[in-house]
Amino acid sequence: MNHLIVMEQKPLEEIVRMLDGVNKVLIVGCNGCAGIYQVGGEKQAEIMKVLLEMARKLKDGKKLNAKAITVLRQCDLQIAVTTIQPLIDNYDAVLSMACGAGVQTLAEFFKNKIIVPANNTKFIGMQDRELGKFHELCSACGQCILFETEGICPITRCAKGLLNGPCGGQAKGKCEVGGWTKDCAWVLIYNRLKEKGHLDLFSKFREERDFRISQSPRELGGSEEKEKVQ
Amino acid sequence: MTKAVYSDLMRQLSERRFVFTGELEPVKTTNLHEVLEGAKALKGHVVAANVTDNPTAFAYMNALIPSYMIQKEVGLEAIYQMTTRDRNRIALTSDLLAAAAVGIKNVLALTGDHTTVGDNPQAKPVFDLDSATLVRLIRKMVDEGVDLNKNKIEDPPKFHVGIGANPNADPLEPEILKIERKVKIGAEFVQTQCVYDIERARRFVNATSYLNIPVLIGIAPFKSIAMMEWMVKYVPGIFVPDEIQQRLRKAKEKGGKEAVLQENIEIFGDLVKEVRKTTKADGVHLMAVGFEWIVPKVIEKSGIK
After folding, report:
1. Which of B178, B193, B208, B232 is best to mutate for the A interface (most A CBs within 10 A)?
2. How remote is the C-alpha of B287 from its chain's centroid?
3. Is residue B2's pLDDT more than 60?
4. A174, A177, A190: residue with CB nearest B174
5. For residue A3, what pLDDT is reported?
6. Which of A166, B29, B34, B77 could cross-link A186 (Cys pair, CB 3.0–4.6 Å)?
7. Best residue in B84, B114, B115 for a mutation probing chain A (most A CBs within 10 Å)
8. CATH for B8-224+279-295?
9. For chain A, which residues make up each domain, given as ranges?
10. Rounded to 5 degrees, what are φ and ψ at A21?
11. Residues facing residue A4 across a β-bridge
């Protein structure tokens, strides 16, 4: 099981539309989460190059000057820039096949280029390999209470993000959101706490959250001086 | 108990009288006529009426104005329903101050159905607070004269705060523990979702008796066979005994719509009587939105004075 950023590729028509008028594009794959989940890794960047070239040819018979490369991690400014810098002068636009953080890392550095996102970034997820399905498990709230809830996050897995659930919208352990098909996180928590004889943690009243802790945009660590990339 | 009593609802509950409450639902309109007519039908038969707050996440007229108007124009006490779905703690605090300013005495604190089940499913859900932390907000305002962040309120409000509960919940135990949680932080009465089966009502009242909080069992007659069938089919957890379903269907075959409504009076009058006689419930919350006239008839049939 992996816990990574889950994303899905945008429809090709949307990518083509964003690149309208661009003749030279550098397609940059990412071997981090995007590569592991085969959404925006080396292979996908190569395929994207072929698809975009074909699309351009079909549209006006012209040739698109495209090149596909892949970096280790696009969210690491130093790694990304070291790989891209020597090539960038030949291109007008960069198509980033990474998550939103990767796209913005490139946008921050290559300010005079058109930066195009190839993916929609969905959530921090876990992959169930057997079913090939991704599940959202963490919303990076910054106030982890998993110790009290038997390792089930109500902030993410309860559709209302309740700290004092379940709400009246559960029936037989299923949630009203999505038509009673998904598990009610609070009933899952209740069942596990009951099994372990810790219903006191269920009955516990939890005070309202302090939303300043997860107030965007967030920062962590480092020094105040901007990192220098050569 | 020597707790202060601000409302007729709380007065009757503290006198251990069997209490009736009703329900009014402002809809997507700018006209108050229907709500006021409904209130007139209930007046004198129920001690107070709930005014719903965008039920099932439908964007309707806000609940505060009709709550105020039924008190002012009809003299019917309001139970102002508040959900945490559409407003954060700032807006809730603000509305509570306004509610107190116009004489609202009872508030029902609810989490609220999710936005995605409503008529604007694209909306951003709020849920800054939940029903439990809303109870805490109200308690702090009333008992300490401050908001959640301890900011002082001039002329603090005087509210009684109630909560919702579902006797049909399966599993039931977490539902009971949730009530326990809210009783500990100061909830004062419970109004339940509709129950059609006396056994479920009894089981629920027994399960909550250790909490010493007044419980009003929710009873909702069926406006039509279609409404009943919809409830049975689409509202998970609702159990309508076969006997009730068959009696109503038979009535329809014999005498159409009118006969269904008459049969409702019989069925639910008896159910109210059963609740009174065979459970330790403190009252009944009668929900007949859009046909409030049936409430006095159901009460009359129950024989409870």
Report:
1. B178
2. 8
3. no
4. A190
5. 58
6. A166
7. B114
8. 3.20.20.220
9. 3-123, 139-203
10. 90, -5
11. A125
B interface test, pick of A150, A155, A156, A162 with most B CB neighbours within 10 Å: A162
Residues of B in contact with A207 (CB under 8 A): 133, 136
What is the CATH T-level fold of the domain A3-123, as seen in this structure?
A: Rossmann fold (3.40.50)
Q: Which residues of A touch B131 (CB under 8 A)?
A: 164, 167
Instruction: Report the residue from B127, B171, B177 with minimal CB separation from A203.
Output: B177
pLDDT greater than 80 at residue A2: no
| Beta strands per DSSP E along chain A | 3-9, 24-30, 65-71, 93-96, 114-117, 119-128, 133-138, 170-171, 174-175
Q: Is a pLDDT exceeding 70 seen at residue B1?
A: no
Tens of pLDDT along B30-61? 999 999 999 999 999 999 999 999 999 999 99
Q: Under the phi-then-psi rule, with left for phi > 0, alpha for psi from -120 to 50, and beta for the rest, what region is B23? A: beta
* Binary contact (B131, A164; C-beta < 8 A): yes
Torsion over CA: A119, A122, A126, A131 (sign): negative
> How many contacts, defined by CB atoms under 8 Å, are there between A and B?
92
The ipTM assigned to this model is: 0.94
Interface of B with A in 59-98 (CB under 8 A): 85, 89
What are the boundaries of each domain within chain B? 8-224+279-295
Q: How far apart are CA A122 and CA A230, in angstroms?
A: 32
A27 contacts A65 by C-beta, under 8 angstroms = no
Q: What is the pLDDT of residues A174-230, one digit of tens each?
A: 999 999 999 999 999 999 999 999 999 999 999 999 999 999 999 888 876 665 554
- Which chain B positions have a beta carbon within 8 Å of A176's beta carbon? 113-114, 117
Cα nearest neighbour of B84 on chain A: A160
pTM recorded for the entire structure: 0.92
